[in-house]
Structure to design on (255 residues):
């Protein structure tokens, strides 16, 4: 999968996505990342990339020309395939695991990062397919949001993590929050690892993990359990589950 990032600060993106798991995925050729400095495309003699807003107001607005030319340059070199152009913006739809999954289906994702007061609306109208926000707060630029999107999407691609289980069982992706994790030593500052995790009984361990995950989700994100009632129901004894279904059907038959 290929990502192209249009930015005034390529170093911000390269720094974050050059290390660790994504850095390795890039070296392995699973993820391709190209950063493009918008300033390199400015035709202004001082390489200006922004100007004051029409109508007045504070701050500077990023101009159309350098962004448009930068995009045209990327477009000319993009390989064939499903392509999506994003603008990172607090006005966009909120990023989530679902949106990450959706984007992971594309071959090429081009991302425009704004700065200052944002970007001239005309260039957004001309080149952007979708606006994505990473949450209800305002950052100084779109580079950190772009890195978040690229990281979350990349780890869904085959070969980036050691196994798809790594993300399928994780918080939110699995439908609920993940159970607590422990590693060696067995005891730390008087706190012991739950006994069941040392039992070697994988049925019991799976059950304990599911119970803990449901408990945590009920406390912190009850909305997730409402979306996935079957997860909590799977903890009920089999007899109870059958009885529940039977009553449910009987009730429906009465109508
Ligand atoms: C200071 S912000 C501009 C905010 C703009 N004036 C507004 O009120 O919508 C500068 C840039 O940071 C990025 N940005 C800021 N907050 C963001 C968020 N929550 N999600 C995605 N991008 C964001 C966008 O690219 C934006 O163009």
């Amino acid at each position: 999968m290929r990502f192209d990032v249009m930015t005034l600060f390529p170093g911000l993106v390269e720094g974050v996505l050059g290390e660790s798991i994504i850095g390795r995925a890039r070296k392995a050729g699973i993820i391709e990342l190209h950063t493009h400095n918008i300033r390199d495309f400015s035709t202004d003699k001082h390489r200006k990339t922004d100007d004051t807003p029409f109508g007045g107001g504070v701050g500077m607005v990023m101009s159309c020309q350098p962004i448009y030319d930068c995009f045209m340059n990327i477009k000319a070199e993009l390989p064939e395939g499903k392509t999506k152009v994003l603008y990172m913006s607090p006005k966009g739809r909120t990023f989530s695991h679902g949106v990450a999954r959706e984007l992971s289906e594309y071959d090429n994702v081009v991302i425009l990062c704004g700065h200052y007061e944002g970007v001239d609306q005309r260039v957004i109208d001309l080149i952007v397919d979708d606006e994505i926000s990473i949450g209800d707060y305002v950052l100084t630029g779109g580079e950190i949001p772009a890195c978040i999107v690229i990281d979350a999407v990349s780890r869904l691609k085959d070969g980036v993590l050691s196994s798809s289980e790594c993300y399928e069982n994780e918080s939110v992706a699995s439908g609920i929050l993940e159970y607590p994790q422990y590693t060696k030593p067995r005891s730390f500052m008087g706190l012991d690892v739950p006994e069941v995790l040392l039992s070697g009984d994988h049925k019991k361990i799976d059950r304990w993990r599911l119970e803990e995950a449901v408990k945590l989700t009920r406390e912190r994100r009850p909305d997730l359990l409402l979306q996935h009632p079957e997860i909590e129901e799977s903890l009920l004894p089999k007899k109870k589950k059958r009885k529940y279904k039977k009553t449910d059907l009987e009730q429906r038959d009465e109508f």
Remarks:
- Residues 88-91, 113-115, 117-119, 133-135, 137-142, 145 surround S-adenosylmethionine (CB under 6 Å).
